[in-house]
């Protein structure tokens, strides 16, 4: 009997040494910073609206929100919070898992938000391995803080930059000041602040959007994680949202 105990004890100790750090890491990932509230528990979609008919494409894997960009839902395929927010700061970690689609239409974006033209006045475009998602603000797809692989960097508000009816200062304001993205597969961290119609985006500790105006944005609305991408005959025909999210914290202002 004693021999069995002596054999069993080292095995138990080894299991404890393996499991305890994993449990502590998981708990630390979901622990909200001071003043913030966690809105993702790492185990369920409690507090979120999974698109009806999604069929498991938005899922939780190893404590993170994981998406394969193939939701079977009809209509809006993005993942939204149940709660609505007005002024807030949201902190969220994200990473792009893979870039199987080569986007042939990626422009060179100038600080003004315009696209660079060649000598014939045509838009210069390049081919970039690309995936695409974003953080949707106040329930509106137009007010989306982009996640993608374009050389201009993540953090821009595409819907406002591309709206030619917007004033020049608005379009320039929602254009990233610098490229702060990490490599594909690495975790990035957003800190997104909304006050009234003003937006500031900090990516990996660097301010890429500062006090940009989003005219007409709703006063309140849910937060969303964007679906993007579709397939034709089994092949991607646009950049897919092959993304993961974790550590989603909100502080209401």
List keywords for this structure.
single chain, 253 residues, alpha+beta, Jelly Rolls, 2 domains, eight-stranded antiparallel sheet, five-stranded antiparallel sheet, 17 strands, globular
> How many helix segments?
3
Mean pLDDT: 92
Just name the CATH architecture of the largest domain: Sandwich
Q: What about the largest sheet? A: 8 strands, antiparallel
Structural class: alpha+beta
Amount of helix: 10-25%
Question: What do we call the CATH homologous superfamily of the largest domain?
Answer: Exo-inulinase, domain 1
CATH class of the largest domain: Mainly Beta
**CATH level 3 topology of the largest domain:** Jelly Rolls
The portion of residues forming beta strands comes to 35-45%
Number of strands: 17
Low-confidence stretches: 11-27
Order of helices and strands: HEEEEEEEEEEHHEEEEEEE
| Overall 3D shape | globular
| Count of separate structural domains | 2
Radius of gyration in whole Å, from Cα? 21 Å
Q: Roughly how many Å apart are the termini?
A: 63 Å
Write a compact overview of the structure shown.
The protein has 253 residues and is of the alpha+beta class.
Architecture overview:
The structure is a single chain. The protein has 253 residues and is of the alpha+beta class. It folds into two domains: 1-31; 36-252, Sandwich (Jelly Rolls), CATH 2.60.120. 15% of the residues lie in helices and 38% in strands. It is built from three helices and 17 strands. It has helices at residues 2-29, 158-161, 168-173, and strands at 37-38, 48-49, 58-61, 64-67, 79-85, 88-96, 101-107, 125-130, 133-137, 140-147, 188-195, 198-203, 206-213, 221-225, 231-232, 235-236, 243-252. The strands form four sheets. Strands 1, 3, 4, 6, 11, 12, 13 and 17 form an eight-stranded antiparallel sheet that branches. It has a five-stranded antiparallel sheet with strand order 2-5-14-9-10. The longest helix has 28 residues, at 2-29. The termini are far apart.
